[in-house]
Each structure stands twice: as C-alpha cells, then as structure tokens.
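Researcher: For the record, we're logging two predictions in this thread. I'll number them. Prediction 1 follows.
Model: Prediction 1, sequence and structure:
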Amino acid sequence: FWLIWHPGSGRRWACALRAMPTAVAPAVIYEVASGVATITLNRPEQKNSLGPEMVNALGDALAAAMADPAVRAVVLTNAGGTFCAGANLKGSGEAPRYSLVDIFRLMRDGPKPIVGKLKGHCVGGGVGVAAACDISVLSTEGQLGFTEVRIGAAPAMISVVCLPKMRRADAAELMLLGDKISATRAAEVGLVNYAVVPGDIEAKVADIVAKLLRGGPNALAATKSLVYRVPGMPVDDASQWTSDLSMKLFGSQEARDGIQAFAQRKDAPWVPKSKL
C-alpha cells in the first residue's frame, strides 16, 4: 500500500494502490478533514462492485476511521453514477481479508456515526452497504433494488441490515419481485433517510454532519450502540443496561462539560469553532 499525505488540516490516503511503477486508481479514497473521515468508493468503471479489492479497501478505511481519535463522523460516498452495484461477479485476483459480514459489523459496532452520501444506484449488496449507514441520503438520480432473485440468488447476508429498517410487507414485495425502486420510495420504506435532488445532496449531508459534530463523542458512541442493541434485548436486560449506561454518561466529564455549557448558553467544548 502507498500512503499519501497532503499538507494542511486534512490528510488523505488511498487504499489498494499496488506498489508498481505505473499509477493505479485506488479502490477506495480515504480523507480526513475537520473531524470527518470521507470514504469514497472509487471504481466507477466497475460500478463500485464488491470484489475482494473493494471490500478489503473499504474494511481498511472503516477500521482506520473508527480507530482515529481525530475522526468524529464518517461520510461514505462514491465516484461515478453508481454507489454500489453489489457483488463483483467477475472475480478478482486479490485474496479477501474481509467479508461483507465483516463490513457490516465494522459499520454497526464502530463508535463513529456513518452518513451515507449515495450519489447513484444501489443494487444487491450495495443496498446492504447503504442500509448499514446510520443516516443516509440518496440522490433522486439513483434507484435501489434487491435484484438477487433475478439471477437465482437471495438477498441473504444483506437482509440482516435491511430487514430491521423495513415493514415485513415492504420487504416481501421488494425482495421477492426484484424490481428497482426510486429514491423517494426507498426513503418511504425506510432503507434510506432522505431522497434529495442531486444539486442538494452535498448541502444536506453537510447539514447532517454539522449537527452530529455538536454531539459529544462519547454520547454519540453510546447512542449509536443503544440504537442497535436495545431492540434485540429482553426488556429487563435492556432496562438494566440502559440504566447503567445513563448513570455512567451523566457522571462523565463530557456530560459535566456539556451541562455547564448549556447553562452558560455557549457551545460545548467539542463543538467545532468554525461554522460548518
């Protein structure tokens, strides 16, 4: 791997650049600036399909973002007109180091909120990656579809992240028919949060990220954890766990700083000084 550093407030590296004399476009571009890691799927000629190279690079980028204390939030986006076309059926020579299940686990269990800036179509496994984002914005130019049944397969692994977001009736219709749906319908059934015209997607994502950065880092991590853990817990266990979590958070320095800032009608110390 080559590591590419850029001077200034941000830094950038490219995953899956092979050590060879001629330049090879990276499968994933990773950039950090102003507390935000931006991960860009960068195989537009392959419709950002999920071959081993792409999955390995995405896994490395997600792991780096989650481990970096300078990163407060993650934006996952794409180059080209397709966010992700699902599995790369042509195969690849690179040995896999992550599975799609690993990617979903990194996205779910990682403490940083992930915002999907989906600038194009999401198909098959790409729907799963989109649904695994904590908050997602899909361009109205893009369509979304569970097309697996059309090739004799099923949306098996991605069902784990998609079904919790959908009514059973919608899930049955979309997964069994294999039709592609509009961004507006995708938002209506809960697979994404927002459908916006292409010219508005940058501003919408920037607004979401700015609001996330107003939340305390530990508070965001705890809130993300309870969103995914509580629904699957027995009521008594959930009540005890959330009670312990609440006491821990209210007793933290982060909460003391936040409460003091609220009382003084000023921003908490973790809020970026510049307006985003």
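Researcher: Logged. Prediction 2.
Model: Prediction 2, sequence and structure:
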Amino acid sequence: STTAATTQNKIPDFGPDFVPSKQNNMNNEGRPYPFSPSTEKSGNSMIPNQFRDYPGGVEMFEVYSPEMTTLYSQVWWKALEPVALPPDVIQKYMNKGMAIVGWEIDQVTTKNNGEEISVPISASYNHHFVSFLIGAETRVVKVTKEDIRKDPNLAAKLAKQQEHSGGCGGPMANLPFPQYLMEGHPVSSVRGHLPTRQQFSSANGGEYRKTFHGFAPSQVLVVDSPQALQVTPMQIDTWNRDKMKLDGEGTPFV
C-alpha cells in the first residue's frame, strides 16, 4: 500500500473530496516500531507510528503486483509487468503531483477456500526488491535479450538504471528475462519541478514485510500524474512443502 499527502510544511486545504484515512498500519497487531529509545519514552517522535497520524491526514491505496510462482529452493529475480494504479487514484492526480509519505508491503497467497493470507516469512525470503512508481510522461520500454543483441546501448541504459537502485548480483541485462527500462525526461514537461517517476528499493531481508516505511512530516517523494507500479523482486523460496504449513502462527523454518 502507498500513502500520499502534501509536500508543504503548511498544511493546505485538500478540498471537500479529501477523506483522511483511519486505516491501521499493516503491522498494527504487533508492537509499534520505536524510532529511538529517547523518542519512545518521551513521546516526542517527529515521525508518527501510524500513517493515519500524519499532520493533515493521508490517503491510502493498495496495488497488487502480478502473481509469482516458485518451487522449493528456487530464486525469483525477474521483473514483473507494470500494473495500473486504481482508476480513482489515476484520475485524482492527473496533471498534478502526488506526494508520497511512505509505503508498506506484504506478500500474500490464496487458500483453496479463496481466503487471502500472508505468506509466512519463513516460507519466502526477500533478498531485495526494486520498484518504480511511474508517471504519465515516463515511457516504459520492455527490453529482451534479443533487443539488447540488436542495440547494445540498451544494456548500458539498464546498467545505469540499476546503479540508482543499489542493485546487486551483476547487470540485470545479463538475465534471460525481459526487463523494464524507464525512459523519458525525469521531470514534467509542464510542471518542470515535479519528477515523472520515483524508485523504491529496499534490501532489508525478511524485515521488509509489513514494515513501516515512512518519512518525517514535510519530507516526501513526488510523482507527477502517477499511472502504474512496476516491481522487480529478488526472493528465495524457503517453503519445505513436506514439513511447513503456510497458515497458522509460528510456522517454523525447516
């Protein structure tokens, strides 16, 4: 889920259609994350523990990536196709900037009865991920190995894009799977100070799941006219199907 708010220190009037979210964070059932012992004891942390407590309020929306399927011990390091943001979000922020104050991530699966559950952290290990929030003026180019053979410059462009993500394990262009190259001017041709895309990248292992990724109030990432999300996960399937269950508390790692 992604959380949007304002870029200014002074809280603006968002208008009559703005309804601040009252939704809990994903990890609400657990202990809230302290940001330092001193701020936890004094209660003076400058970063709210809940997105809903940001000054002026925030709106929240969710995006599902395409499905991933792996077998025990397999590594997934493959770019997923871009997915459109919810239509109401696209419409609301068309020709204007969205200010992002944070995000949360979960990995889910569906049981035979249709119930959606979180995949236990012991069943799928996140090595790292890279994602792009894509604005209307960004051109997304699907690049295959054949494309790179025809135009070697594409490999250099992918390598440069990977540098900004802190990617690891060698050039993504060497992988046999298609990649997605973000092209076009990095700032809006109309609203020249607004970025046309933003990159989110984390390599904090399994702790990424349901973790509060939030900025201090007044600090934001802005995307002009956001349209879609593209994710490239690097995950390891650690689910021993014979000895581990997906549902239930405390699934041990075997």
